[in-house]
Specification:
The chain is an alpha+beta fold. It is built from twelve helices and 23 strands. The strands form six sheets. It has a six-stranded antiparallel beta sheet. A five-stranded antiparallel beta sheet has the order 18-17-21-15-23, with no helix packed on it. The chain is globular, with a radius of gyration of 25 Å.
Length: 529
């Protein structure tokens, strides 16, 4: 089975695009081991007025009442928007579900996330990954929430939405059937942080049903404000190890997976790896190696199977393999090398490229790094963010095929001042995200087919602002999205020479209206106007 997506491909001259139909596989192995279960966008605005968590909690405490959310009520409409429940669903508070309910039981971990009847494994996998990063976790799950101190039946969670952090307030009534939680739950029957987080995300998107279908990378962006890149391992750039090394230096969340066997769920390979299963990359390093007649470095990756058991890589550089005898003791100590049955293992970058098929990098913005990260030598991306919109007859010019109107599109000038360290070019990640499309699905709106083109401005002071039709008529783009596609976000990484560039985001066809967010990540400072 496949999902139909329209997209436009560059025909080769760097300027003109054709519109075709792409078939995206129903299962996309990813950083978080998820199935694509439907529409891939997830753009809902929180309904109703802004709710102040602390003000509402204090009012409830003073009245001696438990909070009941009028915006996301305990009714069928909060469960589904296209159907009615097929059985009687009872909304219960945690103390009506379990004895001694707790927000956390002995802290939190990825094991606190178990799927219920809702098809939102994409979200659950992202939540499990989030739980491995304490600073990022508490950015989403504010501390000092409990069922004891100042309990008033109200909780709150924070999500990144189009350049802003949104505080989502909920009551703690959860959908149950025969007294058991219906959806996300912890294996500890009296632990409720994960079920409440799912409810807050459902409220953000309008209903629990709205969470049926999506990709974990979208959820990770909503949890971090990061920009995600996806790589097919048989189409990777020649400098991939450098890309990974720089991502690791900037605290990016990095993961990988292997194309699943359609006939066997999580099939094992002879090398000890699991198909259709998510792995996290936890360390990347050029490791010093000393052999009898030569010395040098070998690029290694430390990879973690979230099962945390004996299912580990058994090839070169695996636990206890003979290759480790060529690594000096001080290097082993620096690596924190252990050979425990913990699901974590090392492998060479060459073997990684051979055996893994998918790679995902969630690049974090500077807000997601702590002072400790900088003290440990972590670096940050320089970021610029702009909001814009395509308006029919004004700024909705369509792609380069429509030369007469293309120049009407919004234009953004970016100045790249300094090349990367040890390079003569600048790394730039450009991400174009369309806003609020899923919120308009009830009115029949799908994601627009979007992309962007980048033009080098050799003598910017002598060019008009905005650039006019004559500029685009005679100037070839320096870079562009390889395709126009109707996903929530398109992201591309480029190597560009220092200088001034113009980014033109557009829909494929003219006169298609929508709002968007344009984000630029670069190693060194960039100026966007």
């Amino acid at each position: 089975m496949g999902d139909q997506y329209s997209y436009g491909e560059d025909t080769g001259d760097g300027n003109f695009f054709t519109k075709q139909t792409a078939v995206v596989k129903r299962f996309l192995p990813s950083l978080f081991n998820i199935k694509v279960l439907g529409d891939q966008s997830s753009d809902h605005r929180t309904r109703g007025p802004i709710q102040d968590f602390y003000q509402i909690r204090d009012e409830c405490l003073s009245r001696g009442q438990l909070f009941e959310d009028p915006i996301f009520p305990a009714t069928d409409s909060s469960l589904y928007f296209s159907k009615r429940p097929d059985r009687y669903i009872e909304w219960r508070r945690p103390m009506e579900i379990a004895d001694n309910p707790q927000f956390f039981v002995e802290g939190y971990s990825r094991f606190d996330v178990q799927q219920g009847e809702l098809g939102d494994c994409w979200l659950l996998a992202a939540v499990a990954n989030l739980a491995m990063h304490p600073h990022l976790f508490h950015q989403v799950v504010p501390e000092e929430q409990s069922f004891e101190e100042n309990y008033a039946g109200i909780f709150h969670f924070k999500f990144w939405q189009y350049g802003k952090w949104v505080d989502v307030v909920i009551d703690d009534r959860l959908p149950t059937y025969h007294g058991q939680l219906l959806f996300l739950q912890s294996p500890e029957p009296n632990e409720f942080w994960s079920a409440l987080l799912e409810k807050a995300y459902a409220k953000l998107h309008g209903s629990y049903e709205s969470l049926k279908g999506g990709t974990a990378v979208e959820a990770m962006e909503d949890f971090t404000g990061g920009v995600t890149e996806m790589y097919d391992m048989d189409k990777t750039p020649s400098n991939l190890f450098s890309v990974l090394l720089k991502a690791y230096e900037r605290n990016s969340l990095i993961g990988c997976s292997i194309e699943p066997d359609p006939s066997v769920l999580e099939a094992r390979t002879p090398q000890g790896l699991v198909r259709g299963h998510a792995y996290s990359i936890t360390r990347i390093k050029n490791v010093h190696i000393e052999m009898p007649h030569r010395s040098g470095t070998v690029p290694l990756l430390r990879i973690r199977n979230p099962w945390g058991n004996e299912a580990e890589w058994n090839g070169p550089w695996s636990d206890g393999s003979p290759e480790w005898r060529f690594i000096p003791d001080h290097e082993k100590e620096e690596l924190g090398l252990t050979f425990d049955v913990d699901g974590e293992f090392w492998m060479s970058f060459q073997d990684f490229k051979t055996y893994f098929t998918n790679l995902e990098i969630c690049n974090l913005n500077a807000d997601s790094l702590t002072e400790d990260d900088y003290n440990q030598g972590k670096k940050k991306w320089e970021t610029s963010v702009f909001e814009g919109e395509w308006v029919r007859g004004v700024t909705a010019g369509g792609c380069r095929n429509y030369l007469e109107t293309f120049w009407h599109n919004p234009q953004y000038r970016i100045t790249l001042e300094s090349p990367d360290e040890g390079d003569d070019k600048c790394t730039v990640i450009i991400a174009l995200m369309q806003k609020n499309r899923r919120a308009q699905r009830r009115m029949g709106a799908d994601c627009l087919t979007i992309g962007f083109a980048v033009y080098h401005l050799g003598d910017p002071d002598r060019l008009p602002k905005p650039l006019d039709i004559n500029f685009f008529k005679y100037t070839r783009s320096a870079a562009s999205t390889p395709s126009f596609i109707n996903l929530r976000e398109v992201t591309c990484r480029f190597k560009l020479s220092p200088g001034v560039y113009c980014i033109v985001p557009s829909t494929f066809d003219p006169n298609e209206e929508g709002e968007f967010l344009l984000r630029i990540f670069s190693e060194n400072k960039n100026n966007l106007e």
